[in-house]
Hints:
Bound molecules: adenosine-5'-triphosphate, magnesium ion
Strand order of the largest sheet: 5-6-7-3-8-9
Helix content: 40-55%
Shape: globular
Strand content: 5-15%
Order of helices and strands: HHHHHHEEEHEHEHHHEHEHEEH
Distance between the termini: 56 Å
Amino acid sequence: MNKDMIANEVLSDNIASVLTLYPYAGDFFSASGIEGFQDRPQWTVRQYIADIPEALLEDIGASSSQLAEHFVLFLSRMEALKQKKKNVEKITIIGGQNKLGEHEDITISIEKGEIITVMGPTGSGKSCLLADIECLAQGDTQTKRKILIDGRIPSERERFQIENKLIAQLSQNMNFVMDLRVFDFLRLHGESRMIEDLDKVIEKIFDTANDLAGERFSKETPLTELSGGQSRALMIADTAFLSASPIVLIDEIENAGVDRKKALRLLAREQKIVLMSTHDPILALMGDKRIIIENGGIKTVLETSAMEKQNLKDLEDMDRKTTKLLHMLRSGERVETSVTML
Ligand SMILES: Nc1ncnc2c1ncn2[C@@H]1O[C@H](COP(=O)(O)OP(=O)(O)OP(=O)(O)O)[C@@H](O)[C@H]1O
Ligand SMILES: [Mg+2]
């Protein structure tokens, strides 16, 4: 609920109903030595504030209109904090229809901390599936899918609120338009989330982002000067540590200089539900399950098997060699030793 909505309702509401909605409301006044909020249940908040003796207001150093404003701010912040703690244990995808209009006979549940990859040919409908989850579709998109949160239909508020979104979408291009330095961006974001110990959190995000990105950047670097990989790394670290969204969607992390394996582990460790579309076999096998899309419909869901996890080790070894090869080539070295020796 945003501040203006709280302002309009709350100030003209009676204290009894304000307390039902915001049980902690009286704390705001008692913390300033103004007692008796609970004792006048039939008064409106406006009446109550107007009745505060002038001398007491002078002690506090606020006019009655300022006090009213601070009260509203206090409530909206407390509400934001409550939402921050909101957890999602599970999302459920209920099948709709594919591009041919055929019924998608499937229900998939994804639990907290799980990594799900979405695979299928170009144009098959991977981005569409992620978009359905992003808007918590209710049969109102072209796929006719429905998405449940913890087994229930999400409220209108959960679907359409802009602040404190349940879902963070990391799209292919971050396209920063803001002319901010990395540090200012993180500080603003942290302040809007009312993070305690913000300096420490900023430091952690900054270090993690640099760890994920190939080339280091500084806190003074303007966002618009970050490379594709650097800005993606920054957004991933920001999402892991600053975003309240329990669900993270990643559409096609292309090979943009981000250590994608680390990024995935980081997001899963922060107990997010992660869904990622990919064309990369290693990332696919790193997931707990993979959803296979064909013709706009979910063809099947496969759990990564023990044998596949075993194969993943060999693949990662190959990947390590390829990365080493890339470093050698980038720094102008020749690759004349046997590749098996790398
Ligand atoms: N169930 C469906 N019903 C109707 N149209 C669909 C359905 N699923 C996907 N489409 C359409 O198919 C087209 C391609 O889908 P989408 O962009 O999701 O593919 P993609 O798998 O993400 O491809 P790429 O790998 O190139 O990113 C889109 O125009 C989308 O609207
Ligand atoms: Mg796509």
